[in-house]
Amino acid sequence: QLQLVESGGGLVQPGGSLRLSCAASEFTFNYYTIGWFRQAPGKEREGISCISSSRGRTNYVDSVKDRFTISRDNAKNTVYLQMNSLKPEDTAVYYCAAVPTLLFNRCRSSNEYSYWGQGTQVTVSS
């Protein structure tokens, strides 16, 4: 069974940067679409970005466009989320998730995903 482990979270000041990593346990990782989600206290889980398995198509929620970049290194079974110009409202637990196949226009919907990591806390505060 595919296992996902997030890392790279922490405390950062507004305007700072962090890079999250999502490491997968299987060599077939490159066949999975990967999504990044976040959940702030008292709020629903939000899909913020995703990257397809083959062509590396990407998708972002409007609130992170031009600030966050998703990428994948299939040789390392890892997907990254580079987060720049962080804002206090980016504070949340960030999760990565994986699914073998889905319609890419659904890739920010948490209901589509089969496998989830445990999450990593990101706190943006001065």
Q: How would you characterize this protein structure?
A:
Strands 2, 4, 5, 6, 9, 10 and 11 form a seven-stranded mixed β-sheet that branches. The chain has a four-stranded antiparallel β-sheet with strand order 1-3-8-7, with no helix packed on it. The protein has no helices and eleven strands. With 126 residues, the protein is mainly beta. It has strands at residues 4-7, 10-12, 18-24, 33-39, 46-51, 58-60, 68-73, 78-83, 92-99, 115-116, 120-124. The chain starts with a strand and ends with a strand.
Coarse shape: globular
Largest sheet: 7 strands, mixed
* Helix-strand sequence: EEEEEEEEEEE
* Count of helical regions: 0
Q: Topology of this protein?
A:
Blueprint lengths: L3 E4 L2 E3 L5 E7 L8 E7 L6 E6 L6 E3 L7 E6 L4 E6 L8 E8 L15 E2 L3 E5 L2
Parallel strand pairs: 2-11
Antiparallel strand pairs: 1-3, 3-8, 4-5, 4-9, 5-6, 7-8, 9-10, 9-11
Feature tags:
11 strands; globular; 7-stranded mixed beta sheet; about 45% strand; about 130 residues; about 0% helix; mainly beta; 4-stranded antiparallel beta sheet
Please sum up the structure shown.
The chain has 126 residues and is an all-beta fold. It is built from no helices and eleven strands.
